[in-house]
Amino acid sequence: MVPHWKPGWKPIESRMGPSGQYAPQAMASMDEVSARVDELRSLIDRHDVAYFEQDAPTIADPDYDGLVRELAELESRHPELAVDTGAGHRVGARPSEAFAPVSHAVSMMSLDKAFDQDELTGWYDRVLRRLDGNEVGPLTCELKFDGLAVSVRYENGEMVRAATRGDGRTGEDVSANVETIADLPKRLGPDAPSLIEVRGEVYLKLSSFAALNEMVVAIGQAPYVNPRNAAAGSLRQKNAAVTATRNLSFFSYQMGEVDGVPQFGSHHESLQYLASLGLPVNEHAETVASMDGVSDYIERFRLMRHDLDYEFDGVVIKIDDLATQGRLGATSRAPRWAVAYKLPPEERTTKLLDIHVSIGPSGRATPFARLEPVFVGGVTVSTATLHNEDQVLAKDVRPGDTVVVRRAGDVIPEVVGPVLADRVKASKPWKFPTNCPICDQPLERVEDMAATACVNVSCPRQIRGRIEHFVSRGAMDIEGFGESRVDLFVTAGLLGDVSDIYSFDLEAVREMEGFGDLSVQNLRLAIAESRARPLGNLLFGLRIPHVGSTNGDLLATSFGSMEALLSADEEAIAAIDGVGPIIARSVFLWLSNPGNREIIGRLRDAGVNFTGPARSELAPILEGMSIVVTGALEGFSRDDAAAAVSDRGGKSPGSVSKKTTALVVGESPGASKLSKAEDFGIPILDEAEFSTLLKTGVVPAKTEEEGETP
Ligand code: IVH
Question: Fewest CB atoms within 10 Å of the CB: 194, 321, 389, 422?
Answer without folding.
Answer: 194
